[in-house]
Write a structure and sequence with these properties.
- The protein is an alpha/beta fold and 491 residues long.
- It has helices spanning 37-46, 62-68, 79-85, 101-108, 116-125, 139-152, 222-235, 251-254, 306-321, 326-334, 362-375, 398-404, 430-439, 450-460, 478-487; strands spanning 26-30, 50-55, 72-75, 89-92, 113-115, 129-134, 158-160, 172-173, 179-184, 188-190, 193-196, 205-208, 241-245, 261-266, 273-281, 284-291, 294-301, 344-349, 352-357, 381-385, 410-414, 443-447, 466-470.
- Strand 21 (410-414), helix 13 (430-439) and strand 22 (443-447) form a beta-alpha-beta unit.
- It is globular.
- The termini are far apart.
- Mean pLDDT is 91; it is low at 1-11.
Length: 491
C-alpha cells in the first residue's frame, strides 16, 4: 500500500503550527542525522536558534559536522532527550515513526512540533524568493549549480542541498540575498503529513528535471507519482516561472496546470531553451544556448554527460529569469565543481580510475555510464551496481536495467536490498538481469557481498581500466575497499 494517496481530495500539507515566532528560541530535531536533517539543523543554528538533536547510529560526516556547528546530539531516542532540550519547537524527520518513544513523549507532553519541510517553509522561505529544483533526476547537482551561479554573481543566496556541493564549505547557507534555492523532494514529509515535501516550499520559480517512476514504496504507479508534480505546479503564482525539461514525453501534460510562464528546455528535443553544438571532452562540455531561437551565448561546463548539460540548460533559464546576465552565468558555470558522489573521481592508482556515483534509477545508470565513457574515451569500463533504493530493489524496472548498462565492458551486480512484504516475483532478479546484459555484449556477474566484489575487481582490473561504482547507499564500503586496494598496490 502507498503511504499516501494523492488521487483523492485532501486538505493539503499539514501547516506549521500557530505559534509566536518571536518567542521561538530552542529547537530540538528528532533524527537529526537523517537525509537533509543535519543540514537543516545547521541552518537553524546559523539563523540563531539554540539547536539540539537526537538520533541513533550517527556516522561521519554528520557525527563530526554537528558538533562542529555547535549542535548537541543526544544518542538514541528517549523522552529524556526532550527533558534535557526543553524545546520551544520539535522538528520531526520523516524516518521517525509514530511509535518512536521520543515522538510519543512529544505528543503526550503536548510539545509544539512540525516536519522539517513545514519548518523550512515557515521559518526561511516565507520571506525569500523560493527557487525549487524538482524532478526524478539531477536535483542535488542542479540545486548546487543554481546556488553557485547566484553566489558567483554576487547575489549571496540562501540554499539547502541534499548532498555535499564542492563549491561550498557546507550544504546550507543563510544569505543576505533575496533568493533561497532548495532541493524539492517528492518523498513524504512526516508520519503525520504524508504529502510530498516540496508542497511546503512556497515555490516562486521551479526547475523541473522530468518525471519517471520512482519511490515505488509510496507511489503505486506512474500516474500517482506524476500527480505530486502537478500539485507542485499548482502552487506557483501567476507571476512565477517554471523551466521544464522537454526530454520527457509527459512534461507538456504535467506543466499544463501551471498558471505562470513556462519555458521548456532540452538538449535532445525541440524546446524553448535549447543546448546546441554540444561537444564533450576530457575537461567537460561546451555548448551554445538559444532561447526561442535567440542566441544566449556559449557556455562551458566542467562536468560530463548530456544529462548534466541538460540540467545546466534549465539552470541557465532560471538564472536569466532571476536577472543574471549571460556573462555572469558563463563565469559561474565554468567554475562549477559539482557534488560529491556524482561522477566523483576518488582515486587514480595503478593507471586505474575509480569513480563514485549516486545513480540508482535505470535512466541515471545509463546516463552516468555514457558520461564516464565520454570522460575516459577508449578505456575499459567496469560498472558496479547496488540496487539499494526501494525502487531499484523492485522488479518494476527489470527490463529498463537490461539496456542501462550498455557501454560497460564488465558489469557486477550486488544483491538487491531486502524489502519487507515483497513477493519473490516483485524483487529485482539480478541473475536474470546479468544474463540479459550478457546477451547485449558485456560480461555480467552477480555477487552477494561487497568484499567479494572488491576482491574480484582488484584481481582482474588492468592498467587503463575505469571502475564506476553506483549506489545511493554505502555499497558495503566498496569504494573505500577498492581505493585502499588500488593505492596499496594490492593485486
Amino acid at each position: 500500500m502507498p503511504a499516501f494517496d494523492l488521487s483523492v481530495p485532501n486538505p493539503g500539507p499539514v501547516p506549521f503550527p500557530d505559534i509566536a515566532l518571536a518567542h521561538l528560541k530552542r529547537v530540538h530535531v528528532i533524527a537529526v542525522a537523517g537525509t537533509g536533517m543535519g543540514s537543516f539543523a545547521g541552518l537553524l543554528k546559523q539563523a540563531g536558534y539554540q539547536v539540539t538533536g537526537s538520533d541513533e547510529n550517527i556516522y561521519p560526516p554528520m557525527s563530526e559536522k554537528l558538533p562542529e556547528w555547535g549542535i548537541r546530539v543526544m544518542p538514541g531516542f528517549s523522552p529524556a532527550n526532550l527533558t534535557a532540550a526543553q524545546p520551544d519547537l520539535v522538528v520531526v524527520g520523516n524516518v521517525v515513526r509514530k511509535g518512536n518513544p521520543e515522538a510519543t513523549a512529544m505528543r503526550e507532553r503536548g510539545l509544539v512540533h512540525a516536519s522539517f519541510p513545514a519548518a523550512l517553509g515557515k521559518l526561511f522561505l516565507e520571506t525569500k524568493t523560493s527557487v525549487v529544483v524538482a524532478g526524478t533526476h539531477g536535483k542535488t547537482t542542479t540545486t548546487s549549480l543554481l546556488a553557485h551561479l547566484l553566489t558567483s554573481a554576487g547575489q549571496d543566496p540562501s540554499f539547502l542541498v541534499g548532498g555535499v556541493p564542492k563549491n561550498f564549505a557546507e550544504s546550507f547557507h543563510l544569505g543576505s540575498g533575496g533568493a533561497f534555492v532548495v532541493e524539492g523532494d517528492e518523498y513524504d514529509t512526516a508520519y503525520f503529513d504524508k504529502g510530498p515535501k516540496f508542497l511546503h516550499y512556497r515555490p516562486k520559480l521551479v526547475q523541473f528535471t522530468g518525471a519517471e517512476l520512482d519511490h515505488a514504496d509510496i507511489y503505486r504507479d506512474l500516474a500517482h507519482y506524476e500527480s505530486a508534480f502537478t500539485r507542485l505546479f499548482d502552487l506557483v503564482a501567476a507571476d512565477g516561472f517554471v523551466a521544464a525539461c522537454a526530454s520527457f514525453e509527459n512534461t507538456p501534460r504535467l506543466v499544463r496546470s501551471a498558471r505562470c510562464q513556462v519555458a521548456t528546455y532540452s538538449v535532445r528535443e525541440p524546446a524553448d531553451v535549447e543546448a546546441r553544438e554540444v561537444r564533450m571532452g576530457p575537461d567537460g562540455a561546451s555548448f551554445r544556448v538559444t532561447w526561442r531561437g535567440r542566441d544566449v551565448g556559449p557556455f562551458r561546463l566542467p562536468l560530463h554527460g548530456l544529462h548534466n548539460v541538460e540540467n545546466a540548460t534549465g539552470a541557465i533559464a532560471l538564472a536569466l529569469s532571476l536577472g543574471l546576465s549571460p556573462d555572469e552565468i558563463a563565469r559561474g558555470l565554468s567554475t562549477f565543481a559539482g557534488v560529491r558522489r556524482r561522477q566523483e573521481l576518488v582515486a587514480t592508482a595503478r593507471d586505474v580510475a575509480l569513480v563514485d556515483d549516486f545513480a540508482h534509477h535505470p535512466t541515471a545508470v545509463r546516463e552516468t555510464i555514457a558520461a564516464v565513457r565520454a570522460r575516459f574515451p577508449g578505456r575499459r569500463l567496469w560498472a558496479l551496481f547496488e540496487p539499494r533504493s526501494n525502487t531499484a530493489s523492485r522488479a518494476i524496472h527489470q527490463h529498463d536495467y537490461e539496456r542501462a548498462f550498455d557501454g560497460a565492458a564488465e558489469v557486477i551486480l550486488a544483491s538487491p536490498k531486502k524489502v519487507a512484504g515483497l513477493r519473490p516475483n516483485e524483487v529485482l532478479d539480478v541473475s536474470a538481469l546479468a544474463q540479459a546484459i550478457g546477451h547485449r555484449g558485456a560480461r555480467a556477474r552477480t555477487f552477494q557481498e561487497a568484499d567479494d566484489i572488491a576482491r574480484t575487481v582488484l584481481e582482474e582490473a588492468q592498467g587503463g581500466d575505469v571502475i564506476l561504482a553506483m549506489s545511493n547507499g554505502a555499497f558495503g564500503g566498496l569504494v573505500a575497499k577498492l581505493r585502499a586496494g588500488l593505492e596499496g598496490g594490492a593485486a
